Amino acid sequence: MTRQLDYHEIDQIFARLHEAEPEPKGELEHVNAYTLLVAVALSAQATDVGVNKATRKLFEIADTPQKMLALGDEGLIEHIRTIGLYRNKAKNVIRMSEILVERFGGEVPSSRAALVSLPGVGRKTANVVLSMWWGHPAQAVDTHIFRVCNRTGLAPGKDVDAVERGIEDHVPARWQRHAHHWLILHGRYICVARKPKCPICPIRDLCLFEEKTL
Ligand code: SF4
């Protein structure tokens, strides 16, 4: 496994990612905490672009759990059938909306334990909502972040939990808040899976990946 980068090296990486993109944002469209939660839940094994296409119209009609329940299972399916695993995801969104109304007064809760108690909401989804909506320095590790952290040595780990802990333990506090978005954008557009764009990578000299492209 790649060695762990040191404090100064990690600080440099984020200083450069920050310089390239001072205010990084997630790409999933939403209008409030509820629609963010639904969008993230729908995005499992789907692209943000695909989810945005489906939710743009959906969120005009159903931007609260109450309105989603009024739309119902079949109504929701009509909007999201272009997204993978849509039947299961629709079931979860409807059940999640029922629970939000019954137990949380129709609001999205701001604790991880409450979020992961909702159907279809795992630790990663909860962390995205905590970070994007509540400004909590939670680290949601997806496939892009996992790859970047392992290639570079920023937070090497054999599974997503180890990488999540590595980011929390090793990334300086001032970068924690936006670390998720910087790493996701870096993985999506530069450190791509098959042929990373090392020649144009702003952190090339700090990255420890042994198979950099020329
Ligand atoms: S140098 Fe290459 S492998 Fe390393 S972070 Fe940049 S794109 Fe990824």
UniProtKB/TrEMBL annotation:
Bound cofactor: record note: Binds 1 [4Fe-4S] cluster.
InterPro entries linked: DNA_glycosylase, Endonuclease3_FeS-loop_motif, Endouclease-III_FeS-bd_BS, HhH-GPD_domain, HhH_base_excis_C, HhH_motif, Nth
Domain HhH-GPD intervals: 42-189
Catalytic activity: 2'-deoxyribonucleotide-(2'-deoxyribose 5'-phosphate)-2'-deoxyribonucleotide-DNA = a 3'-end 2'-deoxyribonucleotide-(2,3-dehydro-2,3-deoxyribose 5'-phosphate)-DNA + a 5'-end 5'-phospho-2'-deoxyribonucleoside-DNA + H(+)
Binding-site positions, [4Fe-4S] cluster: 191, 198, 201, 207
Pfam families documented for this protein: EndIII_4Fe-2S (PF10576), HHH (PF00633), HhH-GPD (PF00730)
One Gene Ontology biological process: base-excision repair, AP site formation
UniProtKB keywords: 4Fe-4S, DNA damage, DNA repair, DNA-binding, Endonuclease, Glycosidase, Hydrolase, Iron, Iron-sulfur, Lyase, Metal-binding, Nuclease
Family: Belongs to the Nth/MutY family.
Protein name: Endonuclease III
Native source species: Limimaricola cinnabarinus LL-001
Primary gene name: nth
